[in-house]
Amino acid sequence: MSITQKETIKRSVEQESDNNWRDVLYDVIFKADTVPGKSFDVALIVIIALSVITVIINTVDTIDQKYGHFLHMAELVFTVIFTIEYILRLICCRRPVAYAKSFFGVVDLFSILPTYISVFLPSSHVLAVVRIIRVLRIFRVLKLVKYVGESELLIDALRSSRRKITVFLFSVITIVIIFGSVMYIVETPENGFTNIPQSIYWAVVTLTTVGYGDMTPQTHIGKVLSMVIMVMGYGIIAVPTGIVTAEMTKAMRHHNKVSSNVCEGCGYRWHDDDAHYCKHCGNSL
Amino acid sequence: MSITQKETIKRSVEQESDNNWRDVLYDVIFKADTVPGKSFDVALIVIIALSVITVIINTVDTIDQKYGHFLHMAELVFTVIFTIEYILRLICCRRPVAYAKSFFGVVDLFSILPTYISVFLPSSHVLAVVRIIRVLRIFRVLKLVKYVGESELLIDALRSSRRKITVFLFSVITIVIIFGSVMYIVETPENGFTNIPQSIYWAVVTLTTVGYGDMTPQTHIGKVLSMVIMVMGYGIIAVPTGIVTAEMTKAMRHHNKVSSNVCEGCGYRWHDDDAHYCKHCGNSL
Amino acid sequence: MSITQKETIKRSVEQESDNNWRDVLYDVIFKADTVPGKSFDVALIVIIALSVITVIINTVDTIDQKYGHFLHMAELVFTVIFTIEYILRLICCRRPVAYAKSFFGVVDLFSILPTYISVFLPSSHVLAVVRIIRVLRIFRVLKLVKYVGESELLIDALRSSRRKITVFLFSVITIVIIFGSVMYIVETPENGFTNIPQSIYWAVVTLTTVGYGDMTPQTHIGKVLSMVIMVMGYGIIAVPTGIVTAEMTKAMRHHNKVSSNVCEGCGYRWHDDDAHYCKHCGNSL
Amino acid sequence: MSITQKETIKRSVEQESDNNWRDVLYDVIFKADTVPGKSFDVALIVIIALSVITVIINTVDTIDQKYGHFLHMAELVFTVIFTIEYILRLICCRRPVAYAKSFFGVVDLFSILPTYISVFLPSSHVLAVVRIIRVLRIFRVLKLVKYVGESELLIDALRSSRRKITVFLFSVITIVIIFGSVMYIVETPENGFTNIPQSIYWAVVTLTTVGYGDMTPQTHIGKVLSMVIMVMGYGIIAVPTGIVTAEMTKAMRHHNKVSSNVCEGCGYRWHDDDAHYCKHCGNSL
């Protein structure tokens, strides 16, 4: 017990230097404004990209037969690197449980777990499942999104048109349900429209102008209805475009105002091109 | 006869209290600004959604074999609920005949009738027809449209570009008729273009870039004509997009400006929402 | 001879009344601002629409077998009507040869000629050809275009973006030729890319996102190239849309200015919303 | 040796007149603002177009059998012309090596080399390879791009939205990788999704709404996922359109306003092209 007490004391003593060490580590791993932080990010991007490529080409039989051994080695190396990264993130994070429960925490865990299972439980049945779960490592690619500049502008435009996009999606779903159901009645299961979910799948394929051709209308009424839904889809494509374009034009106009002259009275900078007086303090520009 | 007279009197006496009762019911069913009215709407949305899902999955054979009994029960329950709703609407509506003749009145009736027919006329031949009509209940999903916010903005944009969309649709129909007819001559019935309506169907499938592939040009001239119609369709898609985007940009600009007040100094009215001073003359707003 | 002289005199006498008669006829046939002119146009629209529908459904075998006799009768009636119209147009037109040589003059002639040939030269071989040419009557549908309102706005937008659309079309053709040729080398004739024109057809089908599926890449490199052209097509679709939208926004802004106040000094009416002085004469508004 | 010295002297003497000759040639070949320069360009455009058409139709078997001899002759003529052009360009260019290494230099060389190889090394095996490389002559079509007016406006709009298009492409790649991998797990190789690259190919075909139909989802979950990616693709198409439209609107507005002059009275600068008086202060412009 005294040993435990001692350890506790020792820990609290080490806490400060430990904290400093953790703070530095936190800056390197979670931030990107220092030189080591940036290097860490670049290294991570490269490793994630390589690991994603490994997962992708590993599923090609001919490549697996030729370079299977090399890919297996690479996978082990990536797993070790990702394990170290995962542990470091858990250590230096202030709330490790919150990180572990977050989307990227789960993805990080899932991208290392399967390899360990395949090493420690080498039964063939487990391996088949593991082989599949391992592919989920691909979600790590989402980590790269935050490194891409200007994505904020796009995300902002999408976010501010969020409600309109909901309305649009709701319209699409309504159209698809109604046309799917009517086509199920019109075409009957003999022509491939075996049930309403299948018909709805056809309606989505048609409305979005994908048009696989695995299900096509056979009856005359079915063909007429298809034409209606096609032209409708052709017109509906205009709606999200209109929304995003309008939002984007607005966002860009705001963005452009940055360069215009600053008001000397209040420091406001987002004046319109034709403004003679500051709209906030009434100062002459 | 005296009994009938008595009844008439009794009715006119009851009229007033009855009217109050009907007014309350009317507010609950047709309006949404009171607490019971809102609760009624939410409950109706949930029931309609559930009933639509029931209709959809009921057509899947595997699900029908497993949960057919349960789905049949659910259908009866939904029918009873919709029957009560239909009767209540008829009672509290000031002009029941107008409601019964309206689009939603007919849909409401058609979504309850088939089940009753299948209960009271259980002949197998009638059942087959009823099974099909029952699917029309799906049109009830349109009732949900009015609960979606911001749909006015979209509908407004579509309405104000109504005439331009007509012009666009007319152009599409003209192009499709002419290309369909020419392709019928060029490809001949041997290559699947059996008649002009079929050729028009092909032209719509191609112009809208759906491209099922169930009919494809086989001759050289046919392929050249297809290329022309494809690039044309590719360009025509720009027209509705342009219309809706232009209308939307206008609507959004208008929406942003409507709230502003007129400057007393210079009469300028298109101030931004956050303007405190007129940007033209510097007057306080 | 004296008879001829007499006739000539008679003619020159009749000339004036004849001219009046021709002027009235001209107003009725070629203009639409009088009551008889409008009635003539409406009647012509209905007859053309009916005749186009007759041509279309006449190619459907089942309908032809059932109502063939009736459709044949209708065709004769339409031919007689169109013949009268054609002759009237030739008579009242100031330059009949110019009309006869114009696009619609040729279409008008071609829509009556085949029926007469089939009546006077009833050999089966000629009939087969006539049956095909008769379909060209469908081009009469283009006559309806000028009766559709607001088409000027669309046509204006297209015309003012004419040069940009040329650039766009040229880019599409260049991309399609290069990708088609490269795919011909990559896929080889064994995989269906039998020659470069075929490959170009495939490239157009892919770039415009039609995607029939009658020709698909089979090799690995071919699939990678296909992905490039698909994403490219996805992006290129933005260009005509951008052009038309930008033109349309400009056109609509001009169009909106109509409602603004008229300058008292010079009568100019197309002022901007924020104009305080007329930009043409400097008058205060 | 003295002969060589003499030659060197002779050369340096000729240098000046030679330089003049080279300068004139340079103006004719590389510039287009003189009459001979323009004629040279027009002639080159025609010859390139003819040669591209020759390459294209030469791959059609039926045409090759009929007109093969004539096409072979035409090819020799084009090769000679292009050889002269290539040599002239090398001579009059100030830095011949830089030209030879440039994209068009390589294309120019590759469009003449194969014919010479087939003439001097007429072994059947080499011929097969040469036949393929000869098709690359088609890249010469890119030379025509610079002769198309207004392409600058388009290229400018694309260039200024370069970074946003990168973000968009990155999003597309991310979506395609994730959906491709998930579909590989869901559909399994039995349904045609043999490996992840194949699945990614399917995802691109679906997201861009091309929809060949050579690979289609067979399982229920696969179809649901397909519907998600289709609607997503339908929505994502809005993003590049929005970007290009917004850039284009800006470019066009800028283009229209650039020519205007500043009002001396109030300093307002964004006058319309047809403004004679400032719309803000009424000052004469």
TrEMBL record, chains A, B, C, D:
Q: What's the source species' lineage?
A: Bacteria, Pseudomonadati, Planctomycetota, Candidatus Brocadiia, Candidatus Brocadiales
Quote a single Gene Ontology cellular component term: voltage-gated potassium channel complex
Major localization listed first in the record, in broad terms: membrane
> Its membrane topology, per UniProt?
Multi-pass membrane protein
Matching Pfam families = Ion_trans
Q: Which GO terms describe its biological process?
A: action potential
Q: Which InterPro entries match?
A: Ion_trans_dom, K_chnl_volt-dep_EAG/ELK/ERG, VG_K_chnl, Volt_channel_dom_sf
| Record's protein name | Kef-type K+ transport systems, predicted NAD-binding component
Give GO MF terms, alphabetically.
voltage-gated potassium channel activity
Q: Which species does the entry assign this protein to?
A: Candidatus Scalindua japonica
Keyword Ion transport tagged: yes
**What residue stretches are annotated with the Ion transport domain?**
38-249
Superkingdom as given in the UniProt entry? Bacteria
